[in-house]
Design a protein that fits this description.
Blueprint (H helix, E strand, L loop, with lengths): L1 H27 L3 E2 L11 E2 L3 H17 L12 H25 L3 H17 L6 E4 L4 E4 L2 H22 L5 H19 L3 H21 L8 H18 L4 H7 L1 H16 L12 H7 L4 H21 L3 H26 L8
Antiparallel strand pairs: 1-2, 3-4
Length: 348
């Protein structure tokens, strides 16, 4: 048990200790978000706080390598190469995100970073190769080109989801924390104890970062943290056995919100990547919800969906629940859209 405690505690302490230093460093480097446009925070706030989170996570997943005899044995023969891909993709996401924080990359530059992360996952066999057919209880194995396409879509989609979710203090990190906890329980239940150490390390890193990111935030994740969190969550979802239904249940609300914003912007004749205040969390803020209330709403949703995913063993029941949950998420997004009207204008 102490191994699990260590994998949470060490990243927590590293993140909690390093985050203030990163904030001061970001201020000196002028890595700062200033109020205006879509940003409603009152004072210039350092970004790139995700550096501390990434370092803490990498320290956490490195502990079993340093002290292998004190940690659970490898549960899957692919785990060593998965770990290399996880580390490589995280570093690409963090360095690319830091570059974006510095120069504000155009969408093509952001896509290139996300594509490189997806290729790192594919190189390390962290790909979506097969799914369970809930109707026949058999596995469907995809051809290689479809495997690569699905994995690229999955990784890039998750990175964009987390990046766009990072619009309210503490929201993206809080959602990632609950997601990590759900994966830990899921992996331990499947006796993949050594893989469960990875989301545990992420949970510890997030908990050390959140006191500084909690509203009112003293620093932001920045693209450094958002890209890294998105890639790590995508990779861990695959390492957990590509339980797509479980991930979709837990993250249904932000995923549906992203899909709706893309459709809405296309209908308005604008780029899907045009910045505006159309996202659900920003609409809730605009109708008077406090950041803490928004976080509580998302975490309640995510916790209920996570419990459903964990305690629903029937694949057929999950197949029925998933469209209902996605519909509920869509209705929530449409309700918020109606409350605030057209927020599609470009706000910088």
């Amino acid at each position: 048990m102490w191994a699990y405690v260590a994998v949470v505690t060490v990243p927590f302490l590293v993140s909690w200790t390093l985050t203030p230093w990163v904030g001061r460093w970001a201020l000196r480097r002028n890595l700062v978000d200033r109020p205006g446009g879509r940003r409603h925070h009152p004072h210039p706030t350092p970004r790139a706080g995700g550096i501390a989170l990434v370092v803490a996570f990498l320290v956490g997943i490195g502990l079993p390598l340093l002290f292998p005899s004190h940690f659970p044995p490898i549960a899957d023969p692919n785990q060593p190469i998965w770990l290399r891909g996880l580390i490589l993709g995280t570093l690409i996401a963090a360095l690319g995100g830091l570059w974006d924080d510095k120069v504000d990359l155009p969408p093509t530059g952001q896509f290139l970073i996300q594509l490189l992360c997806a290729l790192a996952a594919i190189w390390s066999t962290l790909f979506i190769e097969r799914i369970n057919n809930p109707l026949t209880n058999t596995q469907v194995i995809f051809p290689r080109p479809l495997v690569w396409a699905l994995t690229i879509f999955w990784v890039m989609g998750m990175m964009n989801t987390v990046n766009w979710l990072d619009g309210v203090d503490g929201l993206a990190a809080s959602v990632a924390a609950v997601f990590s906890l759900v994966l830990v329980v899921h992996l331990i239940a499947r006796r993949l104890n050594s893989v469960a150490l990875w989301p545990l390390a992420l949970l510890g890193a997030i908990l050390g970062f959140l006191p500084y990111n909690w509203p009112p935030a003293r620093l932001f994740l920045g693209s450094t943290g958002a890209y890294s969190l998105g890639f790590i969550m995508a990779a861990l979802g695959i390492a957990a056995g590509a339980k797509i239904a479980t991930v979709l249940l837990v993250l249904a609300l932000p995923i549906v919100d992203v899909a709706w914003q893309i459709v809405r912007r296309w209908q308005a004749g604008k780029s899907p990547f045009t910045g505006d205040r159309g996202h659900l969390h920003l609409r809730l803020y605009d109708v008077g919800w406090s950041p803490r209330r928004i976080i509580l709403f998302y975490l309640t949703w995510e916790s209920v969906m996570g419990a459903l995913a964990l305690f629903t063993s029937s694949r057929r029941l999950k197949l029925v629940l998933l469209p209902l949950v996605l519909l509920a998420a869509l209705l929530t997004v449409l309700w918020a859209t109606r409350q605030t009207g057209d927020q599609g204008e470009d706000c910088g």
